[in-house]
Specification:
Structural class: alpha+beta
Shape: globular
Helix content: 25-40%
Number of helices: 3
Distance between the termini: 55 Å
CATH class: Alpha Beta
Order of helices and strands: HEEEEHEEH
Strand content: 25-35%
Number of domains: 1
Radius of gyration: 17 Å
Length: 159
């Protein structure tokens, strides 16, 4: 017998919270694109993608994964750096300031921002805090991490 992840209605509750947040963001002029879920994956997890406009990074995509008792949130800060030592040193130093989101190696050695929220805390107010935190941190870290890790990167004029 398989038990539903996080209870029978966990996926619906997470989906409702994300859709309500997106609708309210769009109502005040902050466009957000939401995808998912199309059903559980092979591990029984449901996933959502929330795409937002950044200032330093044009598009910031948050990946939400429903776990048994939590929702994991990730966003790529940079792809795998060409000069990784400097970027990873910067990320480790930056993690000293981490509160509810921290930097980690992601798929293919990219630099990711990660957080885990207890399922019972995943509601509009917490989601608002989480999205704001991710947008600020990714936009804050992106230009420095890219400059350290990619010799070809140049910050756009006027930023």
């Amino acid at each position: 017998m398989r038990f539903a992840v996080g209870g029978d209605d966990a996926s619906r509750r997470v989906d409702d919270a994300l859709r309500n947040w997106r609708d309210q963001a769009e109502a005040v002029g902050h466009p957000a694109e939401l995808e998912g879920p199309s059903g559980p994956d092979e591990h029984g997890q449901h996933h959502w993608l929330l795409r937002l406009r950044g200032e330093e990074r044009d598009v910031i995509t948050l990946w939400f994964a429903l776990r048994q008792r939590s929702v994991r949130v990730e966003a790529e800060v940079t792809p795998a750096p060409e000069r990784s030592e400097a970027v990873y040193r910067y990320a480790l130093a930056r993690n000293r300031e981490a509160r509810s989101a921290w930097l980690a190696l992601g798929p293919e050695d990219g630099l990711y921002l990660v957080s885990v929220v207890a399922l019972e805390e995943f509601h509009h107010a917490r989601l608002e805090e989480l999205v704001a935190e991710f947008l600020v941190i990714v936009d804050e870290i992106y230009p420095t991490a890219m400059s350290l890790g990619m010799p070809w990167f140049r910050r756009r004029p006027g930023r």
